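Input set for joint prediction.
Command: fold jointly, output tokens.
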Amino acid sequence: MKKITLLILVIFSLYSCEDYLTEIPKSTKPIGGINYSDAVASVNGIYTYLRSPYDKRGYANMPFSSLEVQTGQYFPVNFISQETGTFLTYNLNFTGSNSNYQDIWGAYYQGIEAANIALSTIPNINDPELTDSEKSRLLGEAHFLRAYYYFKLVQLFGDIPIKLEPTTSPADGKIGKSPIKDVYEIVIVPDLEFAESADIPFKSLEGRVSLGAIKSLFAKVYITMAGYPLNQTEKFALARDKAKEVISNGSYSLFQSDANLTWFDKLNNSDFDNREEHIFMAQYALNLVNSTMPIYLAPVEGAGKITVSTLHFGGLRPTQQFYDSYAPNDLRAQNRGFFFDEYPNVAGDEIVEFERSVYKYFDKKFIDTAPYSSKNQPLIRYADILLIYAEAQNEAEGSPNAMAYEAINSVRLRAGLSPLSNLDKEQFKTAVLRERAWELTCEGQVWYDMKRTQKAFDGTTFVDLIGYTKPNGKTFTEENIYFPIPQSEIDINPLLGE
Amino acid sequence: MRKKNQILRKDIFALLTLAFICTAYQVRADEPPTMINYKNVELENIKHIEVEVYWQQTTVNGTVTDNAGIPLPGATILEKGTTNGVISDFDGNYSIQVSEDAILEVSFIGYSTKEVAVNGRSEIDIVMESELGALDEVLVVGYGSQKKTDVTGSVASVSSDKLLEQPSVSPIEALNGKVAGVSVFNGSGRPGGDFRVKIRGSGSINASNDPLYVIDGFVGADVNLINTNDIESMSVLKDASATAIYGAQGANGVVIITTKKAKRGKLNLSYSGSFGISKQANKVDVLDANQFMEMRNRLYDDIRKYRPSEADNLVDYANDYPNLFNPDGSPIYNTNWQDEVLRTAYSNRHYISISGASDKINSGLSIGYQDEEGIMKTTYLKKLTARFFGEYRINEAIKFGGDFSYGYTKQNRLDDYRVGGLTPTRAMIEFPPILPVTNSDGTYSNSDDILRKNGAWDIYYGVNPVGLLNRMERVFLDYQALGNFYIDLQLSKNFKFKTSYGRQLRISNNREYVDRDWDTYVNMNQADLGQRSNDNQQFENLLTYSNKFKNHNIDVLLGASWYRYNTFSWSASASNFSDEFYQYYNIGLGTNPPNVGSSETSSTLNSYFGRLNYSFKNKYMVTATARYDGSSRFGSNNRYAMFPSFAAAWKVGEEEFLNQSKVISNLKLRASWGKTGNNAIGDYLAIGSPSTQIVIFNNDKAIGTTQGTVPNNDLKWEQTAETNFGVDVGFFDRISLTGNYYIRKTNNLLFNQPLPIFTGYSSALTNIGSTENKGIELALDTKNIISENFSWNTTVTFSKNKSIVKSLGANNADLFINVPSYFNTNIMRVGEELASFWGYTRIGTWDIDEADEAAKYNLVPGDVKLKDVNGDYKYDIKDRGIIGNASRDYEMNINNTLVYKNWDLTFDIQVSQGADVVDASYIFINDRYNYANGYTKFYNQAWTPENQNTMRPRVRPNLDRFDALDSGQVFDGSFIRGRNIMLGYNFNSDLLGKLNLTKLRLYASAQNFFLITDYHSFDPEVASWGNQFGQGIELNGYPKAIVFNTGLKVTF
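tokens >
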């Protein structure tokens, strides 16, 4: 038996077992990273989710549509009949199973987790290339992006869970909601303060977070905190100050028409992305990461005619009520302003007519590359900041000053409207809000204004949001202020339902 | 007279090394005859062992077989009156040195001991007579073989004859219906099919439910790249007692494929070939052009009534499109798209093999080729296989052997590209009959040809299916090379040692090109290339001991193995080529920058295993196995796990009280319990890794990383514990019945536990949850008639299995599964069948006098009426429930073989009961009519004011809702299929003698020769999506053909 025993021993000791079973991946790096490029990549990754709500998925699902169809300014086109989520929102039926809300919720929380990972790992990376200045810049960008995501979520969903550390085990999913106030005071404001003090330049032509974007977002956060539901009116002054810093810096300016291009054709033109008026954008590039807003909004009747794509979705169209609210001489309401109802075909030998559609994203380059486009999605525009300044200054000081007039009038003059003057506080406030509705339409901004002011623009004036009946006959109730937290999230973590 | 020599002093370590680096080793013989004499090689730290063999004056070689010619490994061959003896090897071969006048005493459990006088012969083949008669057969089990009567676990075997009853592209196809408890589901009629094999149901939710395939000892080889003709037998190990020896990977059952070896005698050269014709088995009834226009008119009336705002856009067919309509409005064309897309397809298959065996060498070579056209135009599958095997006996103690096989398949597969969007199979049903195949200018017709006044398509957002077939190519190429090399040592009378090294290289390629005009969405031509290379290695060592003393019989197996799996993939795609010429042959010419990627993963597995078989008096037997497995895929805390099993059997029939029974000729009771594991998940999941994102800065690409998978250092094996009770009973020596009842409980499910997305992850792989499979299997074999000229044999297999979810995640929350791009179609819910269909209950349609009630749901008469479970006048998640499932309640296969003189007739009937089918196509074409043609059956049932009592809505443009299934979209998929019928003729030997042939057989067969079902489309056995639980969800699959074959087999 001795020899048999020996044989077995030999066989069974051929390899050291633990070593044999240790496999190191070669296509991926470990979580957290070890060097400068890992740090940069972990912050780059956070940007991914900026674009998510504006990306069409499935056949015609566009989460962005759920920021517009309840405002009364837009209606969804029947052509996309499989897309029930948009129709439910349009009918003010906010349900926890709406995939659009799930998509927005999921995208922004994923962005937050990406930020949490970057923020927790970058301080531990020791690489000489990662200088203090670089580290500060990267951490600043991460803080800004996390604040941006939380700001969107808290406005849309109300009380939400706060999570500032990376997930390390499934148990980390067992937390409940925090009140709105905490989300602002524990997360958003401190994150923006951190970002503001980081080593970040005022402007970024490549599309990264800039100090201009940080201060602009700060202004938007403060003016929101000043309104419903926190009503911290002292924040108007802070909003005014942040907006003023952006304006006085002089890095940004409104697009203006020139001999070659109207300002509308600059606004929708990817050549002008990250420039002049665009303070912060979700970035796209043709065939690398294509934007789908242009094809989603392209008029269905123009398919294969005004672009080379034979499939347009024509997802949203302006309601007559909203369209009629523009003054007749408002350039924004004229053909190829913010809207259009005719356009030459691709060959250029025929004018194609269609029902009024959105022109704001109709990039000329897209005509040849449809359905793909490189058009960036505007997230913060200079016009927005000008109007915030005007509104916040008026609220903080009780009446508009010269700079507030200058701010709103620069937006109006560009639209071909006459300048305002001699308005009292309320008149000025209404004028600014109306201007915001006209100017920022179809950019996912108006819904937030409606929520913080609790007012709706009925085409002539501002009325209380609750009780407001939209052009489609549906009336706002208390249940229409916040989107419900997705039911699927509550199913998994019942604490979110409490 | 007998001299005991120590002829081998060899170094085992060196021998093992030899298997890999071909080092010479040393043999020292004290005296002749020496068969080999290698140079001495001295190695340090060598452990020497002695191996004893016996030499006598005469060498007798031969093979021990049973009376069916199946080799009996492990038979004892003794020189009578001495202790000189040997044991036959795995192939039943033996070699013994005896005196010339010796008498050989050959014994094997279950067989009568036989005495044969040598009489100076050097070659004696010994045929053993079974003690139990013809029921006895040898089964291949894990790492060995056993007599069927001695097997304690649940093992079934299918012989070559049965596998070759019908032509098959893959051996899985041949296995279909042959074994109780093995459910083979063919989800597609494309050449080669789309097979899903489940042994005793599904236990896993996120890990694989596929069985483990072992080809000639190589674990995890690709069964599709083997030629069915090369297979000697397929053994299916079902219960844990049988599979636990493969512990690590055994949880889903094991299919062991043993390829043919040469038999002694003259060289065996044979050819078999067949020719086949395939046709569409049944046509699906869709509206013809006149009915279609009648439908459009009803639809237009509905639009004018309920959607007046759209009425202005409607088409005035006759006036707007005089090229398609006569002035009276009747359509000019009436195209039957099924006729245009499908064809009569031809196939041919050839297989040639040559093999021979002597006492030194057993070797053979075979080549097979199959060319199968699909009944859908331009689709095909070609398969080439080649195989070589050789075994070389160096001396009585040492054998070298190995085999090498090569497999190649090439197919053009067009039916599963972008399922859900545009597929030719879908367009074949849905494309309007009023359009011609090609317009007068030669272009393919498409939905742009009929537009509404607002520019929207009137009918269909798709293009012509004939155009689709001709304008795209999706070629899949698969290459597999599999080599296995072994050394077999007879260490002593009782001990054997085998070491083997195997390597499999598999390369899978896809080459795809889509023409510019094909795709209405992208509007660009696009080429895709990809390749995945698998390089898998296996090193295995087996030590066996067998002995018999008096009433005790012992077999012991010990083994150790190491496996390494490596996958490397790359892909490239580009679009917008200036020219259609290049297709995928020059991908750099795409004007949109090519998208490229690559990735690599590896995993390792290390196992130690053992088995003890013990029987007493040939009546009582026990088997115990254990396997200790370690996998690199699991967390560093839990890599190793132990998988034990026990089984016992009692041959009641051997007891005195039954021994003489005229009725019960055989009775055996079996019981087993065992644990097996599953590690069929991706690599590196325990480590956790970031995912890579493309982000854009400055209009250019930058790399970002975000969360990918959550690390889980505690990740461990999914474990299945299975208890099996079985009985094998025979009556009158003519009827045999095998029955099994089993309970399989799978714990520590490798489960993607859903996480709230605010954690940044949608799920984390954990070991939570359990499932249970319970079932019975019956296999009945009866010899109805046995006479000199006529015999009739019937085999019936029956299986019934239920898979139930027992627990899920931390709070047993429902888990939803969806086929790509739709809402949730399936649900995992505790207490329910795995992956049940989930949705609303359709109770009918709204009547005219229910209009007020319908209005509360925003619906009108003729719309679908769903059950509002909580009565809140909203249809939402609370109103949904379980509305069916794709699992069969039971399945049964009946095989009859009749032999009359030289003629034989075999037919196979398959019965499948209780599986439900979701027809997504029905949703798109008969729950709404705006977009496509529809099934005639449901169109005729559509709601009208005169026909209100119906489940089918009125002819209307759109769905009420598209957020879940409803029960009106779930259909009964039960069927009875005539799977195969074959008539064969074997020529008489006297005629063959004149032709110098040994055997000549001609046959004709028909597969899928009838189908009885209520299902309205081609075939209820369907799966349009490839995901694990996508079975039974159809969006116009590839129709199955009826196949006629004629063939011949000739042996020279």
